[in-house]
Design brief:
The structure holds 2 protein chains of 2 kinds. Helix content of chain A is 71%, strand content 0%. By secondary structure, chain A is mainly alpha-helical. In chain B, helix 2 packs antiparallel against helix 3 and helix 3 runs antiparallel to helix 5. The chains are: A mainly alpha, B mainly alpha. At the A-B interface, helix 1, helix 2, helix 3, helix 5 and helix 6 of A face helix 1, helix 2, helix 3, helix 4 and helix 5 of B.
Chain lengths: 199, 118
């Protein structure tokens, strides 16, 4: 039976090609400013992959926190340290050969291992189209509050016991973020000692 | 059109496709960490590694890629969210250390950081 183009697959190929191409450009580029820009494009394309996997909330968070926050921080770092001699830093040819050998081997091992697992192959088109669309933000929000709404559909009593909420992790991450940001502000504060020493 | 290419466009993708993309991003990140001499370049490599790992969590947490019940269920997106937040924290601290290093040594080349050894 002749079937039309399955558009999610087309957009998967498009997003993954953009993500992989710009990740590779981050690797081979020698200019730190361009690397930062390529990284923005690669991470934005990855958020497209998150959307295509049905995780729209995580995709939105990827765009807001990663692309909108973390990378702005990185680009500020690049701007603060980009003197003429640090914008371009070259790696020697021997290092490139060695790293491409190691990297090619690592990538081949990972992909071939994943290829050998039958459960990870593509599902039937009819099975995927039968899955109803649903809201993903609500279960995530309830999980962070400590209540797992998706456990209601799990029959097995033992399995349900292992599916706890994430309230404790949420609190730990919150306090961690607070401590880390205070520490970062302390580390990066303007130095006054040098001004005293030169005066 | 060859059969492989045709089935690639008319069939849905599975967990394997996401793992392959994640593996490529991970490899690029590892090599970026290994070959860049600029400290911020190393930081960008770490971001790529975290992103490649995140892609796996999302893939295992997705119903659409499994064609039924997801292997990880809700744990996948929740762990991915924690990774995103912790990556933001890590980037903030690493950037503060890099700026401090730059202020003290007047350089961002990590080959010159040997003096930081205890």
């Amino acid at each position: 039976m002749e079937e039309g183009i399955y558009w999610p697959t087309f957009f998967f190929l498009l997003s993954s090609a953009v993500a992989c191409f710009f990740a590779f450009m981050v690797l081979v580029s020698t200019n730190i400013v361009r690397m930062a820009f390529y990284l923005v494009l690669s991470l934005a394309a990855t958020s497209g992959l998150f959307f295509l996997a049905g995780q729209d909330f995580v995709g939105a968070m990827q765009l807001m926190i990663y692309v909108g926050g973390t990378l702005v921080l990185l680009i500020f770092g690049v701007m603060l340290t980009s003197q003429e001699r640090f914008v371009r830093m070259h790696t020697s040819g021997g290092d490139w050969v060695l790293s491409l050998l190691v990297g090619g081997g690592l990538c081949a091992v990972l992909v071939l291992t994943a290829l050998g697992v039958p459960e990870w192959q593509a599902p039937e088109r009819a099975a995927v189209e039968a899955i109803a669309l649903e809201n993903t933000a609500t279960p995530i929000g309830m999980g962070l509050l400590g209540a797992r709404v998706d456990t209601l559909s799990v029959e097995d009593e033992v399995q349900r016991g292992g599916m706890g909420g994430y309230l404790l992790f949420f609190e730990i991450v919150s306090v961690h973020l607070l401590v880390v940001l205070v520490g970062a502000a302390y580390l990066a504060r303007a130095k006054r000692k040098q001004a005293v020493a030169t005066s | 059109m060859s059969p492989i290419f045709a089935s690639l466009l008319t069939e849905p993708v599975g967990v394997f496709h996401y793992i392959a993309v994640g593996a490529f991003l991970f490899t690029c990140g590892v090599l970026c960490m290994a070959t860049k001499r600029n400290a911020l370049g190393v930081l960008m490599g770490i971001e790529l590694v975290l992103n490649g790992a995140n892609l796996n969590f999302i893939a295992f947490g997705s119903k659409y890629l499994a064609g039924g019940d997801a292997p990880l269920g809700l744990d996948g997106p929740l762990i991915a969210l924690f990774v995103i937040v912790l990556a933001a924290a890590e980037a903030a601290v690493a950037l503060a250390i890099a700026l401090n290093f730059y202020n003290n040594f007047d350089s961002i080349d990590i080959d010159r950081a040997e003096q930081l050894q205890g």
